[in-house]
Amino acid sequence: MLTAYDASFAALCDRVGVDVILVGDSLGMVIQGHASTLPVSLADVLYHTRCVVAGTTKAMVVADLSFGSYQASAEVAYASAAAALAAGAHMVKMEGGEWLAPTVAFLTTRGVPVCGHVGLQPQSVHALGGYRVQGKTQDAAGALLSDARALTLAGASMLVVECVPRQVGAALTAAVKVPVIGIGAGPECSGQVLVMHDALGIQPGRAARFVRNFLLERDSIESALAAYVAAVKDGSFPGPEHCF
Ligand code: KIV
To answer: How far is CA 209 from CA 90, 102, 117, 199, in A?
Structure first.
């Protein structure tokens, strides 16, 4: 999985064999220049989803529901998810733990495929006190496993897990029967995701520990993305230096 926000990059992802394109609300940071994902609107996500879908013929497209577009109630979430599917997404992603399970059940029983997002949840950055590694204590890791189980029992067919110790990423992947896509969660996850701009070394300041610049020593964006796909598939990314 890799994020993309427009038709050209989506087409490149398709060409190099990225299985899943995430239209992430990270667009608020890398496209719009905000300090967090919180200002992103559902309309922004829908616009970029349409752009990505227009450039894609093979990859599955997941639309990230924006902050405020699903938390209030299952009905609100359903309306947002329906708009995302109408924009061409095949699945929606929502951040949240056990509390979100009833919403996931509401959506999945009504035909909306759902990807959960546990661990570091950037839409909760202020509640979490910053972008910090999650699941570091035994209690916190146990709570994360309960979150993952609750979401999958409610019908989530994929999970993203962000910024957790490698052992927690591995335990979580073993605990559920759906693909677990890690970002800063170690190589034992079923798959990996990176923000496109991170994978190409386009970020102001110091890169996060879990990021690798695949454009280094390559002469095209296409070869960098192909290298990302190859490194995820052969297990060489993430390496120990990318893990918590
Ligand atoms: O918005 C996003 O790009 C994401 C990924 C970092 C998983 O949620």
So the answer is: 30, 34, 20, 12
182-208 mean pLDDT: 95
Residue closest by Cα to atom 1 of ligand 1? 24
Predicted TM-score (pTM) of this structure: 0.98
26 CA distance to ligand 1 centroid (A)?
Answer: 6
Q: Which residue lies with its CA nearest to atom 8 of ligand 1?
A: 24
* 8 A C-beta contact, residue 161 and residue 181: yes
Q: Which of 54, 32, 34, 62 is nearest to 44 (CA)?
A: 32
Q: Is the pLDDT of residue 204 over 80?
A: no
Residue 226 beta carbon below 6 angstroms from any ligand 1 atom = no
CA distance 70 to 141: 25
The pLDDT tens digits for 47-101 are: 999 999 999 999 999 999 999 999 999 999 999 999 999 999 999 999 999 999 9
pLDDT in tens, 120-149: 999 999 999 999 999 999 999 999 999 999
pLDDT of residue 205: 81
162 belongs to the catalytic site:
yes
